[in-house]
Design goal:
This protein has one domain. About 70% of the residues lie in helices and about 0% in strands. The longest helix is centred in the N-terminal third of the chain and has 29 residues.
Amino acid sequence: MIIVYATLAALSAYIVGSIPTAYLVGKFAKRMDIRREGSGNVGATNVFRVIGVKWGFFVLACDIVKGLFVVTLLYYIWSLIFPPLTSIDRGLKIGMGFAAIAGHNWTIFLNFKGGKGIATSTGAFLGIIPGVVGLCAIVWGIVFLACRYVSLASIICGLSAPIFVFILHRHKSDLCPLLIPITLLALGIIYTHRSNIRRLIKGEEKKVRFSRKSQ
C-alpha cells in the first residue's frame, strides 16, 4: 500500500512540476508561444530574453516555488492522507522532487516539451538540503556575473552540487542517499544543456542582456 501512495504522491508532484509557467506568461503578457521565440525553451532564461526582466523574474520565482511546494506542503498533505509515508521521509521527498523536475522538463501540458529544470531543482532541494543549495547559488551567481552565460553558470552549479553534498554530509549517515540522486541530477543538467554546451564550444551561445522591454 505504501508503494501505491508513494507513486500517487510522485504523480501529483509531476503534475505540479508540469505547470508551464513560461508558456502561460508568454500567452498572457505578449500573446505569444514562447516555444516559437528565442531559444524555444519553456523556462525563465528565454522569458528574460524575449519578454523582459520583470516577467523573467516572475517565471524564475514560480518555477522555484513549484519545486519547493512539492517537497514541503504537497509532501505534508500526502503524509496526512497516509501517515506511513513518513517512514520514507527523505526518500519520498527526493522522489517527489525529481518528479517535479521531470514535469518541468517534459510537461504533460505541452506535448512533453518543457524547460531545463534548474529553477525547479533549486526549489525542490532547497526544501531538502538548503545548505547545499545556498552554496550552489553562490557558485551560480559568481559564474554568471563573470561570463553572463546562464547555461554555463547552471552547468557549473550542477556539477558543484555533489561536491558540496560530500563536503557537508561526509560524516553523516545520509551521505550516500543524498550523493547518488544529486550526482544523477548533475548528469541530468548536463544532458538537458547539451545543445548549450555545443554552442559554448563554438562560441555561439548568447549572453544575457537585461532588456527592459515589455515591462
